[in-house]
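Lab notebook, page 48
Experiment: co-folding of the full assembly
Goal: obtain a model of how the components sit together before planning crosslinking
Operator: M.T.
Materials (sequences as entered):
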Amino acid sequence: MAGSSFGTIFRITTWGESHGAGLGVVVDGCPAGLPLCENDIQLFLNRRKPGQSRYSTPRKENDAVSILSGVFEGKTTGAPISLIVFNENQQSGDYSEIASYYRPGHADYTFDLKYGFRDYRGGGRSSGRETIGRVAAGAIAVKILNRLGITFLTYTKSIGPVCIRPENFDPSRIPENPLAMPDSAAAEEARKYLDECIQKRDSSGGIIECVINGLPAGIGDPVFEKLSANLAKAIMSVGAVKGFEIGDGFRAAEAAGSSDNDAFTVGADGKIAKRTNHAGGILGGISDGSRILLRAAIKPTPSIAADQQTVTRSGEEITVNIKGRHDPVIVPRAVVVVESMAAVAIVDALFANMSAKMDSLESFYGKKEN
Amino acid sequence: MAGSSFGTIFRITTWGESHGAGLGVVVDGCPAGLPLCENDIQLFLNRRKPGQSRYSTPRKENDAVSILSGVFEGKTTGAPISLIVFNENQQSGDYSEIASYYRPGHADYTFDLKYGFRDYRGGGRSSGRETIGRVAAGAIAVKILNRLGITFLTYTKSIGPVCIRPENFDPSRIPENPLAMPDSAAAEEARKYLDECIQKRDSSGGIIECVINGLPAGIGDPVFEKLSANLAKAIMSVGAVKGFEIGDGFRAAEAAGSSDNDAFTVGADGKIAKRTNHAGGILGGISDGSRILLRAAIKPTPSIAADQQTVTRSGEEITVNIKGRHDPVIVPRAVVVVESMAAVAIVDALFANMSAKMDSLESFYGKKEN
Amino acid sequence: MAGSSFGTIFRITTWGESHGAGLGVVVDGCPAGLPLCENDIQLFLNRRKPGQSRYSTPRKENDAVSILSGVFEGKTTGAPISLIVFNENQQSGDYSEIASYYRPGHADYTFDLKYGFRDYRGGGRSSGRETIGRVAAGAIAVKILNRLGITFLTYTKSIGPVCIRPENFDPSRIPENPLAMPDSAAAEEARKYLDECIQKRDSSGGIIECVINGLPAGIGDPVFEKLSANLAKAIMSVGAVKGFEIGDGFRAAEAAGSSDNDAFTVGADGKIAKRTNHAGGILGGISDGSRILLRAAIKPTPSIAADQQTVTRSGEEITVNIKGRHDPVIVPRAVVVVESMAAVAIVDALFANMSAKMDSLESFYGKKEN
Amino acid sequence: MAGSSFGTIFRITTWGESHGAGLGVVVDGCPAGLPLCENDIQLFLNRRKPGQSRYSTPRKENDAVSILSGVFEGKTTGAPISLIVFNENQQSGDYSEIASYYRPGHADYTFDLKYGFRDYRGGGRSSGRETIGRVAAGAIAVKILNRLGITFLTYTKSIGPVCIRPENFDPSRIPENPLAMPDSAAAEEARKYLDECIQKRDSSGGIIECVINGLPAGIGDPVFEKLSANLAKAIMSVGAVKGFEIGDGFRAAEAAGSSDNDAFTVGADGKIAKRTNHAGGILGGISDGSRILLRAAIKPTPSIAADQQTVTRSGEEITVNIKGRHDPVIVPRAVVVVESMAAVAIVDALFANMSAKMDSLESFYGKKEN
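Observation: model returned without errors.
Model output:
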């Protein structure tokens, strides 16, 4: 099935495998007139680049992006924007062995069952490199949103058992440490935890948190196209994500109504606001003007160097340990992926909202008759 | 925006408000030849009926369903199936007051901002009665799946702080207690907890768990149409759901790869299987043949009788306490809603999977040429 | 497959069979704040009612519509609008015979092959009554468009060999004659032609023309979502339509570029306009501000009383003549169906266009940053 | 709006402008296991290449295609197939003048109004080169269909007033003459007509006919997803197409039911068949097992060297004659585009049909319960 597109009015279509010619994305439905250059996208791609610390794979991937269409004289034209990153550093030889067996925690087995065979080189389509297209598209989505005053703050909330503490929260720390944590003490602790993981030839999961400021109220639709539902799909479609929360998330399940409800109030500016934000900025599937708060649970990198039990394609039980250059934790690199997918979902929701009221329609096209 | 449909090949479209003429759903893309009668659907609707215990609203809602199309001589014809439940017990008078202010935790405020006004009678489109269409459609989806050997077990996992214990797990208890818990001791505890909530004029949240057995491997698509992503959207689109997990979910974020990976093995039947199921039956977005395990976090019922701070439509701060017949907990009634949405998402994924391989296509239509 | 919906942002979903409980449509994505009552829709449905002359079936169908949802205090709320028409005059007995054989020109055979069996009562889902949902939705679409100054003129252009003449064109005649022709002389001629058809127990086809005034330039998208392509799908999805043209249509295929191109000019009002309109108001798939002109070719009613050769379900050759109350021509009744489908396609295109430019987006949501 | 994709389960997404870096398509939903190499696609692209006679532009476009993803060891993997053709022969200088005015018959004016500005180099996104992506995808669609015994015969039916004659019909002539006509005499006549056009610095339109053999009965859905409706959208989405017919098309509008209905019969092979095929192989929107017959009306190339009246972007009336290397007729080059779009629509319909019956579903997945 055609499963490589996301979004309705603003739609991204990704393609590519880790060891093919390259990877890319077609961004369709981008409004005309947005200033856009390759550097806008490169800055995003650089945030997911490996090799920036010992906590990510030492593979060097330059991942230089080219804009092939949809931009003319420095601005988007309304035509689809085709972005491409050629693969450079393919060492297919590293992967030949894994063709014969199913790596635990990977999609090898399910791809074989679904398609009859698979491109086994580095995970093929199920590789983490598949996120290159998402992030390239996300750069455009975020740029659109920034123009409308909507901004993102996305970071690592926890790695394994190590979680940031509210009292230490400092966004300026995020780009400073390779783990993208807004808390230096927690980052230091997490670093130690990862060192232990590496020593045990093991890996770690973690949680990513994304805060979206400036989203106007009224975005998202009731019922199936709730903003929360589309954010959930966007984030859960990222490989390795096993859980999603909006606002208090699973803690809301333990709460009482009296503490979970956010009381409305009138702010100093005379505007209606909420006193608290347990809801994470969404009521009934529609943004309420508070900041959006979401979280993604990332499982540990499945490629580990420790011994594991598995079976071969021919059904023989074997013990393997997966060699190669793998990330002991993918959480920090996935931060920009989560932000990108959230941005794509929000752009689509903003576009879909423009025809919600006859008033808006009439002021856009001109009212002619009663 | 058209946000009242879910699914691509098997698509449901719901409509209706709590105090309008009725509510319904159009189920489109149902295969021809499925035996179907109103009772099949009524049994599902009865599972979400209120008034079955003191832990749900004492409103009496018969919610008798009629099939208006798509069934002929006891079987589905392939045409869209229109299902309708007329509203009977509308006491619009009860709700007139809430027209003037924004109930905390409800969608009153966001509907007003999005649409300029709202049908304030009982929540209108954002009422819990909106789930009638979902459940009616779910009955059909589950019936299709049962024919293919796919079955559901869905239940309340926790209410507030009270959680079922694995050692007590007994599915036969689920229909026996009004809280739909598979653990009598936990159900008893939860009952006491809810009694306290009622006394404090408060409400409680909880967690629903859904287990899907018999789903073949290979269902779901890589990238954006991951089975996990579509299940997440399906479940997060249900009102009051604030979190979603597949398999170990947020616990995977704390785990190490060595314990989170599910080792493959060869079963007694000579078939490849997994020794554990931390993944919840989905690898790389595709079902792996193990049982699917998902969870939804439900926030506490926002309508509580205790005093709350809020503002009126004209921007005046007031104190309210919401009268009326409300559920102190909606979790038990939402069990069948979660099951229904999961079933709808899975039917769609099964249909989309049929063209995944040339082999399948050729055996379906007949191969003519090499 | 889910094939009963049309449109993306403004989406209609129809259901129902000619001899089931009723027929209806769910109109989703209608903006909030549109004044709407049942009479708005009834007036449209009355235009497709049979029994208004001897040239349509003498069946009496009141087809009274009810609004079941989506309207509150006389205005649309943004929620899906469910419209229903109950079937009244079902004489299933009339149709029992046709269960056994395949009527030439009907969908009996193809339904049987696709679905394994069919609801044979009056054509079931493939009956002309299926258009009730389209027309009910069309009434809403036209009402939205009228508010924006966009109006429709739709009429019978020809019946069999009898065509209206430009020199006689008079729109005021359309509602006056039962054939919906804007030319009294042609209508008189066509009436005679149909009398002959009736006498021969035969039927006639014809052409419907639809003129859309006031559509702003810029509507429709390049490539696959051309306005012309979506209008074509909308119109060709109506039963019995075998051809579609925009502007000069098939005559353009015989023309030379010098006569087919529409020269641009500057009008008396200082605005850019076209001197001619061979293009039918669409250039490169996008509306150019001229009136839209489209045509649909309708085949003759397949149900005729004359003898026909066919086969039974069990494969026996037989001669049949189809009894019952059939239209000798469906063209006049299909006029409002063509108009409705065109209107639905245009509303969707208008909504999709609102995010075409960053400028529009920024003036809608407020620009915050450069 | 995202308008660059076509299809639901088998979906193509095109991108690129005539004078950008290149053009391409992402083909998503292609089944795994189809043998595919670049030459399969190149052969299709060669059919739309210009410079093959004096009746097409003398521009030399090699249009060499590369497969960037989705194919491994010579077979499709189920992942999206990204195809790219780099632009080689861009002489942007040729086009600088047209930036200032609106070419009659082109999309210059409508793009400017929709997007605020346009990529004026060679038509940008509205150039005929946009069809490269369609044809590259069509090559894959046709290859899939050939495997199932479904074949295409597509040709020029008429050029200007010159039409092929049934008595001369000879498919072997199609590749032999540069006009792709299956009638040598008509091709000779058309050649003379085009010589006159060239001499007058004018251009010509024409009609393309496409015959599809071997399509099983039962493909397509009733109501909005009629096979005829989707074919109409597919074909009308091609630039310059102004009309579409299925079977007898507009001639059916003049016919009587007795002659338009196709009588059913039992063939020598004992199978049900139709004696005639006025319907063009589709009844009620569903294929009936006869060959599909469709036609597209193509308008004359709008770029002509003769003097034309138009206006500049600043609203000044001017006389222009469009220099450059233009086709006096695009019909022969559009033959493969029509075939490609028809093939894409049919593949999607075949995939969507697989879940039409419970029987099919149960034999695909295994029936487990009654």
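Interpretation: The mean pLDDT of chain A is 94.
Next step: discuss with group before ordering constructs.
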